[in-house]
Amino acid sequence: MSIKFTAPENLSRLKLGDVITFQGEAANEIIKVELIADGIYKLGEVPVFEGNWTLNYPFNRAGKRRITVNGFDSTNHKLTSDALDILLVGETTNEIGIDVSNHNGNAIDWQTVKNSDVSFAFAKATEGITYTDPYFNDNWKQMKAAGLIRGAYHFFRPLRNPEEQAQNLLKVIGDLEAEDLPPVVDLEHYPDYIEEEWKQINLNQRIERVQKWLDTVERATGRKSLIYTSYGFWTTYMGNTEVFTKYPLWVANYTTKPQPLVPANNWGGNGWIFWQYTETGSVAGIRGNVDRNRFAGSFEKLLAFVNDSFIA
Description:
Oligomer: single chain
């Protein structure tokens, strides 16, 4: 007994607002099929005619969708299933995402997060040369299973060997997949003991150590890393340098203003790619406060950013 999709192809990019035609084949015992989106939303059900079925559906929200087809016999017993992913792209102004760490606990319902209009998520993976976030592996797997575009970040310790710090991250994340976001280095001066570490080295040493981390990760992954930082940290501890503005910026600035405060002359004129705009946000599927982020563009542009992060 079998059932399968014949159209669209897996991971097809489809235009938001268009009516999407799902087609497939089914074994003789199957008399009807139903389509489910993201394991929750029923798109409809149709009869099977001479081993074939067709269902049309218009979507009103951009993002990655997991579509499942279930086949039923004459007694309404489900016999078999098939699934594929589609990418619905549109002109949403800013895609919304979150970032998490061990502080958010280990009870995140990632499918509920995805269903709350969240398109992407970052999870803390490592810190320094030995620390691994205890919830990273579960978060990493479940973000993918929920259909989120996922990213991993490393919390940088200025007095630790930068190459060893990079290796810590690389060991934990393994081989990135083509649809994953590039790695992130988190550069900040909180809490207080981290600020004291930054104060123990001069500007040239700070720049040199960050560059070594970036170079090590780039050689291993073939990806250009993201830099997470704030205006306050960058102007105080990095001399507001534009040396790193060839790397995409994830800026932290908690404000209700329409644009964040961006260091390094608007990051060398390139602006921000991701903006962490609050640390007290809320998202269904996560208990308590969570960091919320915006991407500088539509879902289609987010996919293009992932592709463009590969080094030619």
